[in-house]
Amino acid sequence: MVPILLVLLLALILFGAGFAVKVLWYIALAVLVLWLLGFLLRGTTAAGGRGRWYRW
Q1: pLDDT, tens only, 4-49
Q2: What gap in Å lies between CA 9 and CA 52, rounded to an integer?
Q3: Are 51 and 45 in contact (CB under 8 A)?
Q4: Predicted confidence band at 51 (pLDDT cuts at 50, 70, 90)?
Q5: What is the 3-state secondary structure (H, E, C) of the chain?
Q6: Non-local CB neighbours of 39 within 8 Å, separated by 6+ positions
Q7: Where are the membrane-spanning stretches (predicted)?
Q8: Neighbouring-strand partners of residue 50
Q9: How far is 2 from 13, CA to CA, in rounded Å?
Q10: Which of 2, 27, 34, 53 gives 42 a disulfide partner, CB atoms 3.0 to 4.6 angstroms apart?
């Protein structure tokens, strides 16, 4: 009984970790796309040059 519970627990942990990693990959890709858009569509300064493409 205990080995079956351990196998089920391990399967649940691995499934949860796999789902979390997949979600994190989607979040990372979304952030990368937003960062690239911010880099490409950055505004100009009053002097006519390109401004900083980062916000911090």
Answers
A1: 889 888 888 888 888 888 888 899 999 999 888 877 777 665 555 5
A2: 49
A3: yes
A4: low
A5: CHHHHHHHHHHHHHHHHHHHHHHHHHHHHHHHHHHHHHHHCCCECCCCCECCCCCC
A6: 53
A7: 30-49
A8: 44
A9: 16
A10: 53
- The residue count of the chain comes to 56
Cα–Cα distances in angstroms (integers) from residue 2 to residues 6, 12, 15, 16, in the given order: 6, 15, 20, 21
Place of tokens 């990959």: 25
Name residue, tokens 């796309």.
33
